[in-house]
Amino acid sequence: MALLEILEYPDPRLRTEAQPIARFDKALQKQIDDMFETMYQAPGIGLAATQVNYHHQLIVIDISDDQKSPLVLINPKIVKKEGVEEREEGCLSFPGVYAKVQRADRVTVEALDRNGQPFTLEADELLAVCIQHEIDHIEGRLFVDYLSPLKRERIKKKLKKLNKGR
Ligand code: GNR
Ligand code: NI
Question: Where are the domains of the chain?
Fold first, then answer.
């Protein structure tokens, strides 16, 4: 397995729209394993392929405390959204940045698993937030897109300052 480099805002590659996955081969299995390793090491509760410069519709998630609930979503589609909830979000592509975002409170998502088998998942609370956050990534959207231009500008400046040190 291998750790992958996570792209950081404002890297323009984070705006790439991911392509659907059609081949469930060995290379895909390795990409999935490498993304889990990268997410657990970060640590994060989700990682979208876009964040590691792989522009295919692939998401890994694990919101458990013990790394025992890995979830793979390939070519995901949200088929139902209910309610509205505002929660604080973070993102591995925005180190140290947290902001409140309004999203659906419950979602139903259809996706393929790592073997290409279709499944449907109903999610609420943190898992629902995470699924929506990750699907945004593979469509080239970022959580700061929901903030005011002023807040977004402040975040951009903060990250620029942090990156000057390297
Ligand atoms: O690790 C993460 N935590 C998190 C917290 C609240 C809402 C969304 C997230 S996802 C984030 C990892 C990440 O950047 N995924 O794209
Ligand atoms: Ni993110």
Answer: 12-164
